[in-house]
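@channel anyone free to eyeball this complex?
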Amino acid sequence: MLVLGIETACDDTAAAVVRDGHEILSNIVWSQKQVHEKFGGVVPELAARRHLESINYVIQESLDTAGVSFSEIDAVGVNCKHGLLRSIVVGVAAAKAIAYSQSIPLIGVHHIEGHIYSNILGNPDIEFPHICLTVSGGHNLLIHVTGHDRYELIGRTLDDAAGEAFDKVSKLLGLGFPGGPLIDRLAQRGNPQAFAFPRPMLNRPGFDFSFSGLKTAVVNTVNELRAAGKEIIIADLAASFQQAVVDVLVTKTLKAAEAKNIKTITIAGGVSANSLLRDTFRELANRHGLKVIYPPISLCTDNGAMIAALAYHKLKDGQRSDIFLDAMANAPLGALEAVYKNPAKSFTHS
Amino acid sequence: MIVLGINTSRRVGSVALTNDQEMLGELGLEMEYDCLRNILAMIDYLLTQIHLTIGDVDLITVVLGPGSWSALRIGVATAKSLAHVCNKPIVGVNTLDVLAHNLRYTEKLIYPVISAKKGYVYYAGYDCANHSPQRVTEYRFVTCDALFGDLRAPAVVLLDDGLRDHAMAVLQSNQAITLGTPALSQIRPSFVNEAGLHKFANSGADDTFSLAAVYLPDAEAESKPTLVT
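replying in thread with the prediction:
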C-alpha cells in the first residue's frame, strides 16, 4: 500500500511516498530556512505564504522521485493537529483535495505522533512499551508509548522547548538561525565545563522540563562578561550551554525509563539530530543495558515520511477522516475523538 | 465547458458550477472560522446535486485575493490541488475585478472597496461603458478618508461590511455617489467563473504550481514580523 504523507507544520514544506508504513520511496522537504534566517526565527505569515507557493511542486516531486502517479497512491495522510495554524491549513487543504479527487482515504494525524513514528518507520519490529523523547523548536515531551495509537504523556516543558532555547541562544551569540546545528558545530571546539550553567528541573521529582531559566543564565553570563570587559569565547559558551541541555534531556529520559521499567528509548524531533545528545544517549544506553533508537538525520526534522508511516498504521486500524477534516494548532495527543465530536471554533483568521 | 469557481476571500465563502456562463448551481456560506472544514464539502455537495464528479470539471477558477489571509490560502490551495490532481487548467482572479462584475450595466464608474487594517482600504475604479468592466485606475491602497476624496462621480461604491456606517455618514451629502447594497457588494461565485472564463479566453490558464495568492500590501507581514522563536 502506498501512502502520500504531507506535512506543513512550521517552515518546511514536506511530502513523501511510503510503502506499507516502512519503505520510503521518496521524502521531499523544501526548506524555507533562507526566508526566515534574516529574522532570526520563523515568521508565521511568511511561512504560510511560501507553503501555498511550493506545496504542489513538493507533492509532484515526491511522486516523481517515487516513480508513481496520483492514481497509484492508496491513501493520503496529513498533519492537521499540531503546528502553526496558518501553515497547517495549506497542507490539509491540499491533502483533502487530493484524497477527494482520487476517491482514496484521507487520514488526519498529529504532528508529534508523526515524530514518534519516525522511529517506528525504520524499526517496524520495535518493542512496546517504549519511552519516546520528542524534542524540537516547538515541542519537548516525554511519552510512554504503550502500543500503536496508545500514549501516555509523562513529561513536557513548562516553558521553552529545548530547540527553542538553542535558537534563542544562537541568536544571542550572533550565530544565526536555526540554532541547533550551528551550536552543535561550534560546541565541538569549545569547553563544555567552561561555564557552570544550571541544569533546570533535574533534581525535582517528575519528568517535566524547563529551559527558559537556562537561556536567561546564558544571557546573564554574556552580559557580565561584557560589563567586565572580558573576552567572550563563544565556543565555550555554546559547548557549556549544549552540555546543560543534553544533561537534562538524557537524565530525565533515563529516570522515566527506570520508573516505568522500560528498556527501549526512542528520541525524535529536530534536536534528536544533535550529535552530543546522540553520543550521550548511546554511551549511557550501553552502560545501563538500554536500547536507544533515533532516526536518520533526514527524519529528525519535519518530514512527510513519518506522517505517511503513521497514516498507514491508522488506516490499518480502520481510522480515516471525512471531508470535514479541520486543523488545530495544538490538539491533545492520544484519543482525540472527544475533541472532534465537539468541534470548537478551531482557528481565527488574520 | 464545466467551470468550478471557488471564492474564500471574504467572510462569506462560495462555490459555483457553470456550463460556460450558464449557471448550474451556486452555494454561499458565512464561514469565517470554518473555511477549511467546509469548502471541499460545499464543492462535493454542488457536484453531487448536479450529478457531476470532479473529473467532469473542465476549468477551475479561484479568487486569489486580496482578502482574509488564511481563508484565502485554503481556497487557493484547494483549487490548485484539485487542478493539479485532475490535470485541469486553473485561472486566478482578483477580488476587486470580480466585484466589479456585480454591476456592469451602468454608465457610472464602479468602485469595489475592501477594508484593511488600521483604517486603510484597497480599491480600484471600473468603467463599464462596453458592458465589460475595464479597470480605469491602479489598484490603490489608501486610507479610508483618502478614498472618499479620490472618487470620481457619478459612481457606485461597493463596500465591505465594516465600512458601511462610516461611508454612509461621509457620502450622504453627495447625490452623485451611490452606495451599493450589502448583497450587491458580495462576491458572486458565478461571476468568478465569468471573470475567469474571460481571462482564460484572453490570456490562457495560470501556472497551477506557482499560482500565489494576492495580499494587501500590509507592511506588517513583511517588515515587522511576529516571530515564533
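from a first look: Residues 335-350 of chain A have pLDDT under 50 and may be disordered.
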